[in-house]
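Weekend entry, working from home. Most of the wet-lab plans are on hold until the incubator is repaired, so I used the time to fold the two sequences that have been sitting in the queue since the last round of cloning. Logging both here for the record. First:
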Amino acid sequence: MNKAARRFVNESLSYKLLGDEALSQKDHASYIVFDDNIRRAKMKESPKDAKLWGAVDEGKEMSYAVYGNSIEEAVKKAGLDPKALKATIEQYNKLAPFGKDPLGRKSLSSGYGKPVAIVKPPFVIMPATAGMIGTYCGVRIDFEAHVIDVFGERINGLYAAGEMTGGIHGAAYMTGTAFGKALSFGHLAADVIAKSE
């Protein structure tokens, strides 16, 4: 949700599209809101999440999120509008878990999992925005994965594959494409190297 405590996007979209939408919000700010059921499920799935969210069980304050035993308590700490957030969560709970979300959310993430109601305290609110994790540019290669210099010539003995060769994603990232180009161009480079020896 945004600073007005309103949802603004189908949260199951790819992180690239979510980032674009987050950047379009006031102050480029957005918030992730979840309850104890969601927190505990994530903590079981991953040691990283267990460490990140275990502070709630210890009653510790976190620099990266706030929590409260009611929506009102959590939202007050987050500095958002309590009435707006309560109304947003009530609408979400009434519609999203039943496949009737007005923003089109039908899964938790990328088509997997079913949206669940946000009902069990403590409730957590974490500020979020987009982050740059790749530049989608890199060295130029030819059809045999040889690196090409600024003059358009092959650099003998230098090959490249994967993310360092730039983007093939288009307008949005599709899960798995980084592996695809790493594996395919890596295999191609290895094949060319093996044949040249």
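Second, folded right after the first finished:
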Amino acid sequence: MNQSRDIVSKLSERGYRLTPQRMMILSAIKNSNDHTSAEEIYTQVAAKYPHINISTVYRTLELLKKLGLVTETNLGEGRVRYHPADKGHHHHLVCQECGTIIDLDESVLSSLKSALLQEYKFSADLRHLAIFGRCVKCSK
């Protein structure tokens, strides 16, 4: 099943309509090469549909997050960023000094997830997260 049909079916199964605004918001997220903020999505959609309200963007993002269609990550810049869930799980190392963001492979965290389950009886959701610290250039 392709992603568009999957989204339509998930929305309609739960009684939500696929409005033109929702389609444009989904398109902005899907076509982004990187994590995108609600404000960036709003700017993109408003260029084509000037009557959209930023609250519509926020409500749609909350709905998409609840349905598991987008992931939400705070990369430490004062705003949350969104990423299509179907583009895979990945993680980030964020330098607090220079702002560099390094992608971290999910396999690196598998031992952490196992240790949390074994030691603390806690099943961690490590699908998408940021770890803050200093990169090698800033650690010197």
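Plan for Monday: verify the second prediction. The helical segments are 3-13, 20-30, 38-48, 54-66, 110-120.
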